[in-house]
Prior knowledge:
The chain is of the alpha/beta class. It has 17 helices and 13 strands.
Amino acid sequence: xxxxxxxxxxxxxxxxxxxxxxxxxxxxxxxxxxxxxxxxxxxxxxxxxxxxxxxxxxxxxxxxxxxxxxxxxxxxxxxxxxxxxxxxxxxxxxxxxxxxxxxxxxxxxxxxxxxxxxxxxxxxxxxxxxxxxxxxxxxxxxxxxxxxxxxxxxxxxxxxxxxxxxxxxxxxxxxxxxxxxxxxxxxxxxxxxxxxxxxxxxxxxxxxxxxxxxxxxxxxxxxxxxxxxxxxxxxxxxxxxxxxxxxxxxxxxxxxxxxxxxxxxxxxxxxxxxxxxxxxxxxxxxxxxxxxxxxxxxxxxxxxxxxxxxxxxxxxxxxxxxxxxxxxxxxxxxxxxxxxxxxxxxxxxxxxxxxxxx
Length: 358
């Protein structure tokens, strides 16, 4: 028998997950777990799937969404009873819980719960009526990025609004990110900004935007061809580009930055509840993060674990690729994408759609 790094990690992960007992593994054999997530984002990493399938005897089927609204629509329109686990952003957990799309999580079955960073595990947005509805997984910043061959390093979001940068900006097509970024630029409360001022600011920003991007692939193509030379960007993707030698600087501006968290939620009416917990336990384990971040598959977009033990276990090179140090040690203003009511989120989404359509 030959032993590879991945086989050893898989064995270690199995030992670390007492919920996946051998008898239970036999029970999982022949089951198929359907996972809804972003493409190229951990859940569909080939090594990840192989490790989980080897551990459980089950198979994994990936389905993809292209926005948080798309995820919720996927469940509303036939996904219930077919999709087992999903990857909502913190800000969308409340909507999914209120609409009975997600079921409560028994945190005693989540082996990493005590290891999770408290600002996420204690966040009210993952709770409804005293029950937890999602398990925080990873975090990152959507902050300021520039091509250093073209621009000096800025210190403020104001650079995106500078008329000199007309047609050079790539901006993430997400209503919460857009409104919070504009609020930081204006000096407004990012959780409760003056929406009239935000609308005016976003309309002004639109004049400079060359690309509203929705995936890392969108950004990569536009940035590497010179179509865009600045914008807002995910920290994990920024770290990967820097590590690969691209002329990119990633800045946490003086006026603040947007921080997000992604979570795992279990879909109501899943026929594979125990297998769903096994998936969450594996995907939140230090062994998993060591594999995914240390040896990611092609095109994988990475993020910083919410599991503090997993962060400590990362090789320094992997932590640097994630921009983990700058993110976790940032002392400036943080606009955490959480605590937004479904009603407010609906208003924000409509405002953003109106801005883009104008």
